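seq as requested:
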Amino acid sequence: MSDRIRKRRPEQNGPHFSAEDGKRGRVPKIEQLRSDLQKLYDWSLDCQMLFTTEKCKLLYFGYRNAKSTYSLGGDTGKADDEEKDLGIIVAQTLKFSSQCVVAAKSANKTLGMISCTFVNKEKEVMLRLYQTLVRPKLEYCVQTWRPYLRKDIDLLKKVQKRATMIISDRDLTYGERLKNWV
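struct tokens:
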């Protein structure tokens, strides 16, 4: 690695704003953020690791956000209401309702596929299929998007209720069906 590249590493002379600063309530100046973005872009040019600026998006958090414009290499970033990253949908409001809808929809599709595909609906087989194919879709990164709104919790509970209807006796109440799963 050349000396020129070694000097321009972002961790050495990188951004002046860290996550810790945000927790302390210290907000960086807009010009400082723009300067840090330019330094990051210059570093990427030196290292020949260019950013795909068409894929860069801006999410504005907070109600008093000035919604300033930022550019990376001359391309102005596009503002968006929500963004999917590592399979998790993050919205400007930091509410994960859209993530809950996507997870429930995917789990319901898989549950429907299981219901239509398997003729033998023995409890043990259906329970294993639910635990293997459906539940991971509801629990993927749940620590990050932990549903806390009543509507989101009810939406995810609907999937589980539907699964208990397929696996257990339909004449039982939901609570009794859940007890039979154990």
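DSSP finds nine helices and six strands in the chain.
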